[in-house]
Amino acid sequence: MKSTTKIIFFMFLLLLCIFSINYKTDIKDSDDFKDLPNLSDFRKLPQSEQIKLMKIIDSMPMDYVVNYFEGKIADYVNNKKLLDLITINIYEDNLLMYENQNKKQFNNLFISLELSINHENMSREEAENISNEINKEIFQLCIKDTYGFLKLNTLYTNFIDNKNMSNYEYTTGQTFLSEIANIEQSTEELETQTIVYNFVHENKNFILRKFGIIANTKELYIEIPIYDIYEKKSQTAILNNLQNISESLYEKLKSNSESRKYIQNNDLNKITISFYTPWNTDQYTTYSYTLK
Predict the structure, then answer these.
(1) Which domain of life does the protein's organism represent (predicted)?
(2) In whole angstroms, how large is the CA radius of gyration of the chain?
(3) How would you classify residue 67: left for phi > 0, otherwise alpha for psi between -120 and 50, otherwise beta?
């Protein structure tokens, strides 16, 4: 009896292994969202398997991602008599950082919509309520599958009525932050990012929000928000010192061998350091350094 029980147990393990191997292989070799596990199944996976799937999700071609969400949203709009789709813009922000970690943000997908809505025979309150409900439905549509839930950062929706009399704008952020998986980075990029991150966090109230290469301008872009400065004297002191801080960071990057290699290997033209000061009239103070 014991021998029979052991045989059945080992056969069960063998079948389980075969299923897991086939499942992983199918996912690995596919760029199709249909091959991803649904959100409920994803949540049940061990963290190691979640990380593998998240790396596959992050490597999916952007053209495919755009077509997928454009199709979902267009189908939704076409089934709503009140709505017409004016514009849709879907993009990844590959520079976005977790603000208190030396990591690129995984959920970095943004969707911006402009919709025409027929408000005829409605009060303004009714029109606003309907716009709000439609915005919620589109957001839920975008995050109901595994990819959207993990990757969508923010949905921007702007409703324009059919007579262009009023606008209703919504910004809906995704609260789930997928910090268990990192965006793939080269050693040189991570080293350079670490230099910037450590430098920024030496300064009180400074945060590294964006770091990375803007491909079409061949520049290394660094964005540093400065929050919670309330006293006028402190604000003035910081503003007067921004150029010195910027130059110190630039010199630090120039003097490090890994960051120099990163700059050379990517054939960069300039480094841009932009400080975001929401408490100042001019909210951005930007310094650029030509490299060639």
Answers:
(1) Bacteria
(2) 24
(3) alpha
Question: pLDDT tens for residues 152-189?
Answer: 999 999 998 766 566 888 999 875 555 666 778 889 99
Residues 48 and 66 in one domain: no
Among 284, 275, 287, smallest CA distance to 226 is for: 275
| 269: helix, strand or coil | coil
The count of domains in the chain is 3
For residue 261, tell me if it sits in a domain.
yes
| Domain finish residue from 173, 198, 226 | 173
Residue 178: its pLDDT value, please?
A: 55
| CATH number (domain holding residue 285) | 3.30.300
Write b or e for each residue in 177-187: b if 16 or more Cβ atoms lie within 10 A of its Cβ, otherwise e. ebeebbbeeee
Same domain (yes/no): 118, 134: yes
Q: Which residues contact 197 (CB under 8 A, 6 or more apart)?
A: 97, 102, 208, 211
Reported as a single tens digit per residue, the pLDDT across 56-113 is 898 899 999 999 999 999 999 999 988 999 999 999 999 999 888 999 999 999 999 9
Domain span including residue 247:
187-290
Closest CA to 98 of 170, 171, 176: 176
